[in-house]
Amino acid sequence: MSKGIFGLFEKRWKFQKVSLAESAEELHNPARGWYQLHSFQAEETISREDLQWRINEADSLVLVMIDIGAYKDCNMDEQGLSNIRMILDFFTDRQLDIILRITYDHLGRAQEREPFFFMQVTEHLAQLGPLLEQYAEHIFVYQGALVGNWGEMHTSRFLATDKLERLSSMLTGFLGEKSFLAVRRPMYWRALHPMVCRSRDYSVTRMGLFDDAIFGSATHLGTFGVKPEAEMGWDDPWLTEEEISFEEKLCQYVPQGGEVVYEEGVAENRSLQDTVERLRRMHVSYLNSGHDERLLKLWKNTSWKGVGPWMGVSGYDYIGRHLGYRFVVKSVSVTFEKMEEVACRWEISIENTGFARCYQEMVVWLEWTDKDGRVCTSEVDLKLSHILPGETKAGTCVTIPAEGNVYLYAKRKKDERSIYFANGTAGKKGVLLGRLSQ
């Protein structure tokens, strides 16, 4: 077919695009956002009815903290393990991604509640191993290594590098590639990854960070140090700005989240823009919606300034809706090509306006209905998990033209959970891109 004749045929098809503006709506996407803390003691049996009232339907993930301190001097019994299994069952049945922290202490007294011998710690972890393997698909992040006050890896006898190496190796063996690990301070991460520190290729790790003292002080209550890297080793704490720069690189590949803390006399003077910039640089994916209430209240009483859909939105909502990834369809274009038959070549550009990457594999596809009423799909060659915060990437796919509306959809590959786009489509699984017609 000559170019001129094909040109006439091409004109028979038209694509009418719709407006693809960004909205400020809340998106119920998995593995990101606000979470509630649910704390349990392994020796205590709790009914599903007692658990039900705890659930916030707006959340997509939860932090489950399980205290095993009652077993400090002995192995766990079957009842304790059964209680943990029931708790994990409850949350997985409700399709909530789990941030899991198993610890000896929920009272801030780890040195009293932890075993005297390290061998008992490893024995407990070995007992927990089959449970971790069973629920690995549902555990988004496993925080800590059993030890420290509140499981936060401080004030413990078991924080030497060789002991942390042993515990993290066991956890990796149980959870494999299905879950992420997280340690409390960057210095622990570096101590556990000497080879990665030399190569600086952070893409090879499955260990991220958690920070339960964000904004609590200039050093995040001792999470960071007061001396520069030049004076310290890789496994020592660095100045806050240097640690934030380290996290900015590392957490392009692994998640970070935690809690914010109100700092007296400082919190009121920190601008919302500066707050957001810190969270963006840290690539924060999840935060506790109940702590620290004083700082969260301050955010709720502060409004985002500027132009666009976010003008006037509270700081709390602005931050919450940017935790983790947030995808916006920016543009769509269609060209018509003559192959074995006429085909549409689509190019769709998507921006990640969130604080962090999407750390799990997603599938993106176009969907339309053909002339016979059949629903047709075509996968878009675009990996959402590769779009860094602030980046826009384009994907392509080829379809056979059919009159009617064309939609863009996305889902998480492992469980087919829908991924919603920030294009004014809250509650709708797909984004209308436009209409093909002749």
Could you describe the 3D structure shown?
The longest helix is centred in the N-terminal third of the chain and has 18 residues, at 118-135. This protein has an eight-stranded parallel barrel with strand order 2-3-4-5-6-7-8-9, surrounded by five helices. Strands 1-16-15-12-13 form a five-stranded antiparallel beta sheet, with no helix packed on it. It is of the alpha/beta class. The chain is 27% helix and 26% strand. Helix 3 packs parallel to helix 5 and helix 5 runs parallel beside helix 6. It contains twelve helices and 16 strands.
Strand tally, please?
16
Mean pLDDT: 94
Shape: globular
Helix count equals: 12
Q: What's the helical proportion of residues?
A: 25-40%
Q: Whole-Å distance between the termini? A: 20 Å
Which structural category fits the helices and strands? alpha/beta
Unreliable segments (pLDDT under 50, ≥5 consecutive)? 1-6
Element string (H = helix, E = strand)? HEEHEHEHHEHEHHEHEHEHHEEEEEEE
Task: Reconstruct the topology from this structure.
Layout (H helix, E strand, L loop, with lengths): L2 H8 L3 E4 L15 E9 L6 H5 L8 E7 L10 H16 L3 E7 L6 H4 L4 H18 L3 E5 L17 H15 L4 E4 L2 H7 L1 H6 L7 E8 L25 H11 L5 E5 L11 H11 L1 E5 L4 H8 L14 H8 L4 E12 L3 E11 L9 E8 L5 E5 L12 E8 L4 E9 L18 E7 L1
Parallel strand pairs: 2-3, 2-9, 3-4, 4-5, 5-6, 6-7, 7-8, 8-9
Antiparallel strand pairs: 1-16, 10-11, 11-14, 12-13, 12-15, 15-16
List the main descriptive attributes of the protein structure presented here:
about 450 residues; alpha/beta; 8-stranded parallel beta barrel; 5-stranded antiparallel beta sheet; 12 helices; about 25% helix; disordered N terminus
